[in-house]
Design brief:
This protein is an alpha/beta fold and about 375 residues long. It has two domains: about 180 residues, 3-Layer(aba) Sandwich (Rossmann fold); about 150 residues, Phosphofructokinase domain (Rossmann fold), CATH 3.40.50.460. It is about 35% helix and about 20% strand. The strands form four sheets. It has a five-stranded mixed beta sheet with strand order 3-2-1-6-7, sandwiched between helices. A four-stranded parallel beta sheet has the order 9-10-8-11, with helices on both faces. A two-stranded antiparallel ribbon has the order 4-5. Strand 1, helix 1 and strand 2 form a beta-alpha-beta unit. The termini are far apart.
Length: about 375
């Protein structure tokens, strides 16, 4: 098919590296003589063509992407509340979910788009696959700081999030040692502990608690007291927001609005409240939260984002619809989106990084030998 006009959108949570992807895609597409429409706030800009915010659907050229490679966030805006198959509307004062996917497809054709680049995480890729099944031409680009999408070595945004978390742990070492405190740093990661694992290893934390390895309090206390007995009266505990005790559940703030996942809240504070009665040391909690999503992308994420954006356009040029770009180091490859979402990318309990962390004395709150 002859391509003249494509769309590009960013969905789900924001992360560093989105703008480099947009830039790479726009510059590659324009070099081929294609028009590029930036679609606002994920599929919101296709659900309603009159949908307007300060960003807005707009045509993108080289001038529009100049200087954005170093900027965090996304110039197109994003949303995790725009699933067209489960779109929340209010009818007679009552919120309900409806399917507006046919409207998305109709507007896609109304805009005379020949294809769409969908940049997003697991949820966005699942939506993309459903739209592909209904006939849309889509290429996916994997984005998530959690790095929980399958079939790719890395997702952009992850490296920057790990660097932010590692910097925080480095600083916490200083204050924890000065005051002989236990510092609990809570990091993002609903079901995947990759950020916490990498940051704990890079930042020399003493305990690493991730969703994939439920923890018990006793081994954590043992680690802290062993360090104290050796003359190290402070400890750093890195915990993912989705970590939970054995036979326990994740910490959440309670039920959320229709169409929204429960918000994780309090894993670090729950751990601290459980530890403190057994210790004579003070326990403090630091929650990094959305600091991990913001800021200037690292050079790794700038380069990976640029490569992904360019590769997505190339995939369109050769007609590989329904595929997602992926990193198979050192190459960028194409994999079916259906394969990428078939099995989430979680931390295997026997992963080489887990073994490396255990080898240098990092505890996981379980009974594995140190």
């Amino acid at each position: 098919m002859t391509i003249q006009r494509i769309g590009i959108m960013t969905g789900g949570g924001d992360c560093p590296g989105l703008n480099p992807v947009i830039r790479g895609a726009v510059l590659k597409a324009r070099s081929l003589g294609w028009e590029v429409l930036g679609i606002e706030d994920a599929t919101n800009g296709l659900i309603d063509l009159d949908y307007r915010s300060p960003k807005g659907n707009r045509w993108l050229g080289p001038d529009d992407v100049r200087g954005i490679i170093s900027k965090g966030g996304t110039i197109l805006g994003t949303s995790n509340k725009s699933d067209p198959f489960n779109y929340v509307v209010t009818v007679d004062g009552v919120k309900k979910e409806i399917d507006v996917s046919d409207r998305v497809i109709a507007n896609y054709h109304k805009l005379k788009l020949d294809g769409l680049i969908s940049i997003g995480g697991d949820g966005s890729m699942r939506i993309a696959q459903k739209l592909i099944d209904k006939g849309m031409n889509i290429i996916g680009v994997p984005k998530t700081i959690d790095q929980d999408i399958g079939c790719t070595d890395y997702t952009f945004g992850f490296n920057t999030a790990v660097q932010t978390a590692t910097d925080a742990i480095d600083r916490l070492h200083d204050t924890a040692e000065s005051h002989d405190r236990i510092m609990v740093v809570e990091l993002m990661g609903r079901n995947a502990g990759w950020i916490t694992l990498h940051a704990a290893l890079a930042g020399a934390a003493h305990v690493c608690l991730i969703p994939e390895i439920p923890y018990r309090i006793e081994p954590i206390l043992e680690k802290i007291l062993e360090r104290q007995a050796r003359g190290n009266p402070y400890s750093i505990i890195a915990i993912a927001e989705g970590a939970h005790p054995v036979a326990g559940t994740q910490s959440t703030e309670g039920p959320r609005a229709l169409g929204q996942m429960p918000r994780l809240l309090g894993a670090g504070h729950r751990l601290a409240a459980t530890l403190e009665p057994h210790l004579e040391m003070e326990v403090r909690v630091v929650v990094l939260g959305h600091l991990q999503r913001g800021g200037t992308p690292t050079q790794f994420d700038r380069i990976l984002g640029t490569r992904f954006g360019s590769a997505a356009v190339e995939a369109m040029r050769i007609g590989k619809w329904g595929h997602m770009v992926a990193l198979r180091t050192p190459d960028i490859v194409l994999v079916p989106i259906a394969d990428a979402i078939a099995e989430p990318h979680f931390v295997p309990p026997n992963h080489s990084l887990v073994r490396a962390a255990r080898d240098v004395g990092i505890g996981f709150g379980d009974d594995e030998p140190r």
